[in-house]
Amino acid sequence: EIYNHEELKAKLKHHKFQTGSDCEVIAHLYEEYGEEFVDMLDGMFSFVLLDTRDKSFIAARDAIGICPLYMGWGLDGSVWFSSEMKALSDDCERFISFPPGHLYSSKTVGGLRRWYNPPWFSESIPSAPYDPLLIRESFEKAVIKRLMTDVPFGVLLSGGLDSSLVASVVSRHLAETKVARQWGNKLHTFCIGLKGSPDLKAAKEVADYLGTVHHELHFTVQEGIDALEEVIYHIETYDVTTIRASTPMFLMSRKIKSLGVKMVLSGEGSDEIFGGYLYFHKAPNKKELHEETCRKIKALHLYDCLRANKATSAWGLEARVPFLDKNFINVAMDLDPECKMIRRDLGRMEKWVLRNAFDDEKKPYLPKHILYRQKEQFSDGVGYSWIDGLKDHANAHVSDSMMTNASFVYPENTPTTKEAYYYRTVFEKFYPKNAARLTVPGGPSVACSTAKAVEWDAAWSKLLDPSGRAALGVHDAAYEEEKAPASVDPVLENAFHPPAHGESTLVKSAVPAAAV
């Protein structure tokens, strides 16, 4: 999707366009500007472009890696590209996940070069003051540009901060501009979870507040377990967190597509940008917090982007992620990271800068307790018994002796838990080559941290689980609702302070076991 294609077309006054496709502009930009045009694109993409004049070609991937792309090499010296690893595993001895923000040119020695070089990429500490209005307006623009569509669409609504903000901005835009919804006269929202899960309750409340047609989808632990092999085949990873979260998203996507929806907006990326994971409570200083957010964004293509794209596209559904808008990321990553630090003494919880930007007393975007709802990872929020059920299933299939020999069976990225071992076994059944297993990163992690951040707390070395429950006891609220700050926050001293909709229609659905 090239969101600025109309703007780019206006620069190509002497070019004749033959279709209404937003992607047609790519060929014309290449003809006009050569390989340097890629940085002009605002959107999510991965493509290969063949120049028939000299048989040269280029391949490129979007800045963050929202769209998947793999690159492989055959024994005969041939170069291969595919949006799925499975297309390369039989014909290529070596293949990699094509790095985000890069371009490959057949004309260049070495081929690969980076085209995306934002200021934050160097990980130097930024110093821009906190401007809530700039954050709010930048995000609203990111959401609205992704409503460029002529197909029925909706919003994935977990009831957490990120997806709720997406739904709120979309709902406001549709109401204020009377944009055609393409599907009835109300915005449709979707949530999945085990019955009684935290997400289902919160999502219903947000949907009521915004007046959406809300689809509450239920699944059981057994239905999720039954889907695991198919999920791993489609997602192409053995990463524990990604599989835990991909499975309910995979089940939900199937149901959404069956209802006629072809595009959804989703809330991935906010936690990486703003330090929203619970382990960020332990960030020792703003320098380490900023460097960790940089590392997390750079790795998104291996985790949440991979999940959001492949769990949906497995059913022909397209997911768009406004938090990963290039311009919005640049604004958010230019902030002095001091304002992203979690400070209980100042009443600042995780992602406070984002929450505060949308804390509008005159025309609230969300109910206050939703706006300040504590972080839940998707795999936790769909129901805590989901993760417990996965662990029980793995324990029943992986013996202690298998774990003892794990380093001999899997010397690369050796699994350290029975759950990880089980996923690895399934993955290797579909993707047995060493090149495939090397596309998945390894290393210790707690609550989705990088290996570097594990060093922030010595106790974490004994709690290496990617669930949010491994940090700070996610079952307990870290903050009382609407708790007043204990002292004056210096970040707010010179910052702009940002100045109900109807009841929703709830459509309850169940994903049948036979659906997978």
TrEMBL record:
<keyword id="KW-0436">Ligase</keyword>
<keyword id="KW-0315">Glutamine amidotransferase</keyword>
<dbReference type="GO" id="GO:0005829">
    <property type="term" value="C:cytosol"/>
</dbReference>
<feature type="domain" description="Glutamine amidotransferase type-2">
    <location>
        <begin position="1"/>
        <end position="109"/>
    </location>
</feature>
<dbReference type="GO" id="GO:0006529">
    <property type="term" value="P:asparagine biosynthetic process"/>
</dbReference>
<dbReference type="Pfam" id="PF13537">
    <property type="entry name" value="GATase_7"/>
</dbReference>
<dbReference type="GO" id="GO:0004066">
    <property type="term" value="F:asparagine synthase (glutamine-hydrolyzing) activity"/>
</dbReference>
<dbReference type="GO" id="GO:0005524">
    <property type="term" value="F:ATP binding"/>
</dbReference>
<feature type="site" description="Important for beta-aspartyl-AMP intermediate formation">
    <location>
        <position position="268"/>
    </location>
</feature>
<dbReference type="InterPro" id="IPR050795">
    <property type="entry name" value="Asn_Synthetase"/>
</dbReference>
<feature type="binding site">
    <location>
        <position position="22"/>
    </location>
    <ligand>
        <name>L-glutamine</name>
    </ligand>
</feature>
<protein>
    <recommendedName>
        <fullName>Asparagine synthetase [glutamine-hydrolyzing]</fullName>
        <ecNumber>6.3.5.4</ecNumber>
    </recommendedName>
</protein>
<feature type="binding site">
    <location>
        <position position="192"/>
    </location>
    <ligand>
        <name>ATP</name>
    </ligand>
</feature>
<dbReference type="Pfam" id="PF00733">
    <property type="entry name" value="Asn_synthase"/>
</dbReference>
<dbReference type="InterPro" id="IPR029055">
    <property type="entry name" value="Ntn_hydrolases_N"/>
</dbReference>
<keyword id="KW-0547">Nucleotide-binding</keyword>
<comment type="pathway">
    <text>Amino-acid biosynthesis.</text>
</comment>
<dbReference type="InterPro" id="IPR001962">
    <property type="entry name" value="Asn_synthase"/>
</dbReference>
<keyword id="KW-0067">ATP-binding</keyword>
<keyword id="KW-0061">Asparagine biosynthesis</keyword>
<keyword id="KW-0028">Amino-acid biosynthesis</keyword>
<dbReference type="InterPro" id="IPR014729">
    <property type="entry name" value="Rossmann-like_a/b/a_fold"/>
</dbReference>
<feature type="binding site">
    <location>
        <begin position="266"/>
        <end position="267"/>
    </location>
    <ligand>
        <name>ATP</name>
    </ligand>
</feature>
<dbReference type="InterPro" id="IPR017932">
    <property type="entry name" value="GATase_2_dom"/>
</dbReference>
<feature type="binding site">
    <location>
        <position position="156"/>
    </location>
    <ligand>
        <name>ATP</name>
    </ligand>
</feature>
<dbReference type="InterPro" id="IPR033738">
    <property type="entry name" value="AsnB_N"/>
</dbReference>
<dbReference type="InterPro" id="IPR006426">
    <property type="entry name" value="Asn_synth_AEB"/>
</dbReference>
